[in-house]
Specification:
The protein is 47% helix and 16% strand. The protein has 359 residues and is an alpha/beta fold. Strands 1-2-3-4-7-8-9-14 form an eight-stranded parallel β-barrel, surrounded by six helices. It has a four-stranded mixed β-sheet with strand order 10-13-12-11, sandwiched between helices. A two-stranded antiparallel ribbon has the order 5-6. The longest helix has 22 residues, at 235-256. The two termini are 14 Å apart.
Length: 359
């Protein structure tokens, strides 16, 4: 089917409204969360990257071996693992999971967080490094013989991997970033360009820019947009639920001293802050309450309404060319189960009807 739903799992239960209590690496939660997403009908699960949290390769391996059908999307930041080794690690994990893996390349939107891992390149240098990183990784995945590489950031002699990806010619590459430097790299390398949940106008603008850049390289790119759906049996109850979530998040931040600092070097964060300045409600269903609270620090916008209303809102983005939707809730495990009951099948049914009419 042309529409794909991506969920997200962490290494333990926590969110803006749920304080973590379990071990940092909660094996039971990882397994239960992955299996819940598979049972709910998600197509893929994102495993994120943090500079101070458990390794995503191992989280993905555990989740993947605990499921049989669902695909995975592993976030990876270039610069900390040599591209020759990263290519082999990703190919090995993809073989372990029988081809159920894609990689989400994140160059890094915060100087402070990058420096936690010893990276002192500036914003545009990070994207230049990412471009070279992907050049090498893709060559390792596809080359039938050893090759040499000498670039600005990486060097290798007789680089080669005996293990190739199950998926040919290589793993799907998802890519994020809203700056001109990011869009330039995406045009060359991205199979799917990932956006945070912005307004329809902002999304249309970015899609047009990325498509134009990809066309310069004779390529076509898919698109993914991220939302935090808040659904209830009536629209009134859904908006009340959103306000309750915002109040819970404020309370948790006050009690824990949990503070998000602005990301001045992240264009995506800047765009979410600008969106939040338009008001808490944009385009009827798009809610920016949490985005404003966290300073646009991550994918924090929500679509609010009944399952049918939220499905219709997703279709507005579908009409712009979006075929992948990354959705996660503020109560991550229970919301994933809830989405599987109505939102996912209802949206797929509406897409099928639309495609049938078009045909």
């Amino acid at each position: 089917m042309s529409i794909q739903f991506i969920g997200m799992i962490g290494h333990r239960l926590s969110s803006e409204i749920i304080a973590p209590t379990a071990p940092v690496f909660d094996k039971d939660y990882i397994v239960r969360s992955a299996q819940a997403h598979e049972a709910a009908g998600f197509d893929r699960i994102l495993v994120g990257y943090w500079s101070d949290q458990p390794d995503g390769f191992l989280v993905t391996a555990l989740a993947g071996l605990s499921t049989s059908r669902i695909n995975f999307l592993l976030a990876h930041r270039p610069g900390f693992v040599a591209p020759t080794l990263a290519a082999r690690k990703l190919a090995t994990l993809e073989n372990l999971l029988d081809g159920r893996l894609a990689v989400h390349i994140i160059s890094g939107g915060s100087d402070a967080e990058q420096r936690k891992d010893g990276d002192y390149l500036d914003h545009d240098q990070r994207y230049a490094r990412t471009e070279e990183f992907l050049d090498v990784v893709k060559q390792v995945w596809t080359s039938a013989r050893p090759f040499d590489h000498q670039g600005e950031f990486f060097r290798a002699e007789a680089a080669f991997s005996a293990l190739k990806p199950v998926q040919q010619p290589h793993l799907p590459v998802y890519f994020g970033g809203s700056s001109p430097a990011a869009i330039r790299v995406a045009g060359r390398h991205a199979d799917v360009f990932a956006l945070w949940g912005e307004s329809l106008a902002q999304t249309r603008e970015t899609i047009e820019k990325v498509r134009a850049e990809a066309a310069r390289h004779g390529r076509q790119i898919g698109f993914s947009v991220s939302f935090r759906p808040i659904i209830a049996e009536t629209e009134e109850k859904a908006w009340a639920k959103a306000e309750a979530i915002l109040e819970q998040a404020r309370q948790r931040m006050a009690e824990s001293g949990w503070v998000f600092t602005a990301k001045p070097d992240s264009v995506g964060a800047q765009r979410l802050r600008e969106l939040a300045e338009q008001g808490e409600r944009v385009d009827t269903r798009l809610w920016t309450g949490i985005s404003k609270l966290v300073g646009g620090a991550y994918n924090s916008t929500a679509l609010v309404g009944t399952p049918e209303q939220v499905a219709d809102a997703l279709l507005d983005y579908y009409d712009l060319g979006v075929r992948n939707f990354l959705i996660r809730g503020f109560d991550p495990l229970n919301d994933a189960i809830d989405y599987g009951r109505e939102l996912l099948p209802l949206t797929r049914a509406k897409v099928a009807e639309r495609e049938a009419r078009a045909a």
